[in-house]
Amino acid sequence: MLLIKNGRVIDPGNRIDEVLDIFIREGKIIRMAKNIDPERIKIHFGAFEVIDASGKIIAPGLIDIHTHLREPGQEGKETIATGCQAAAAGGFTAIACMPNTDPVNDNKIVTCYIVNKAIQEGCVRVYPIGAITRGLKGEQLADIGELKEAGVVALSDDGEPVMNSEIMRRALEYVKSFNLLIISHCEDKNLSQNGVMHEGWVSTRLGLPGIPAAAEEVMVARDLILAKMTSSPIHIAHVSTAGSVELIRQAKTEGIRVTCEATPHHFTLTDEAVTSFNPNTKTNPPLRSLKDREAIKEGLKDGTIDVIATDHAPHESSAKEGDYLSAPNGIIGLETGVSLTLNELVHKKILSINEAIAKLSTNPARILGIKGGLLKEGDEADITIIDLDREFIVKPETFKSKARNTPFSNYKLKGRAIMTIVRGEIVWKDEEFYGGK
Fold this sequence. Notes:
- The structure is a single chain.
- The protein has 437 residues and is α/β, with parallel strands linked by helices.
- The strands form 3 sheets. Strands 1, 2, 3, 4, 5, 16, 17 and 18 form an 8-stranded mixed sheet that branches. An 8-stranded parallel sheet has the order 6-7-8-9-10-13-14-15.
- The protein folds into 2 domains: 2-58 and 379-434, Urease, subunit C, domain 1, CATH 2.30.40.10; 61-368, Metal-dependent hydrolases (TIM Barrel), CATH 3.20.20.
- It has 14 helices and 18 strands.
- The protein has helices at 38-45, 80-90, 108-121, 144-150, 165-174, 189-192, 201-206, 214-230, 242-253, 264-268, 290-302, 337-346, 353-368, 431-434; strands at 2-11, 16-25, 28-33, 49-52, 57-60, 62-67, 92-97, 125-130, 154-156, 181-184, 197-198, 210-211, 234-236, 258-262, 307-308, 383-393, 412-422, 425-429.
């Protein structure tokens, strides 16, 4: 049993923003109220742990809608266990994992493996995302009914685009029968080809092959047209360009059922970061121009961008130690995502803390149709406690993730999740604040 005292409870979905106490028993929120008397609880229920959250934010458990756990098949990069530990350390009580494993999560056997492994070894909730097409090849639809029955919450070929427009159309039509969401990786491979960074002045100066903004925007436009044609919802992953933001903004005014996400690395860094030739800055979509970064921030501010997602993409250190051209794409983000959001958006007054929590919790739960995103009596207690003023230096060697491929090493950040509670159990706490208490 837990009693969280004196925290500022922010639940955007229920329009709560006030100092309250929360009593948790048998994994559920039993009571939320002001000044809950510890003595009365002790008389009725016996011993319990008290957490003093004075000056801290109590939020519905944060949810990362876009994580790569690598298991099965690529356990040298990450496992379900270590990915869950990294999520907990970053303040996430739930993660949705992409299907580009080995084998691909395009069938019930892989889905069931992930679900069961997460139950056995995971400390946070894990929601599998199944593949749209078999083997992520973009040629034949996966057995969507089988995947739904096995437990997937959405479908995506993330890491690969569905280049065939007819296949994407059929996917959007077919998933309506199963109430599943399509999450689209928007990239025209004919335009991106062998590019390794954003195409622009910086790529020209560095002599590196570029990926034009149009490679993303062409596919965003196509998928918006197909979503309108099929009257099916679509979610656009890792939006990175000003043009994409504007296309989605316009589509929303037309009533097209589209949602989208942006990553902390895309609203924090620009292609100038690549001048260091640090392979940890290499990702897909690439870090874009200053204009693109500011458009992402504006899209977050005006509500065009619904979700902040990490796109946590772990790799072995050896894979990121070679030259820039041969290094794999990907940046880890589970243990820095919340802090970058607070540092870059909340403290700089682009988003309020309420808006940030909505994009990290309320909206992801609503879009995926999963539990969470709210704090309500009778519900399971998934809670993240946040200290807006906690300052720290990013030290990858302390990460719970197996991977270290972050461009934010030695960054000084302000704001951090300091306790993560899943089903009423503390799965991670910042020892500096809660160790021994």
